[in-house]
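Sat 14:20. Reprocessing the chain from the morning session after the first attempt stalled halfway. Input below, unchanged.
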Amino acid sequence: MVYAKLAGLLSFCEKRKKAFKGAVPLTQIDNGMLVRVIKLTAGRVASQKLVEMGIVPGAVICKHATAFVHGPVVITKGATKVAIGFGLAQKVMVAMSNLKDAV
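Finished this time. Tokens:
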């Protein structure tokens, strides 16, 4: 019984790992790239700040610029342009999949 539950949990974890396999932090994306937010790996307070800015899983954002040496990252979502810190930008996992329907 316990083994069956453990096996089910492991298969669930493997499926989740495959789902986020192509995700990378926002800081690793080139400027000018249009990406979809996959996951927020930030804590409760930082995640709330991102949600208030409209940066939620499923949202399509564009990275405009990164300041030199771990400076702020400028992004747009819709008509809104915001700058977020490098540390917070590292906690936004993004991917370049299925963007044809977003534009």
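The two ends are 48 Å apart (CA to CA).
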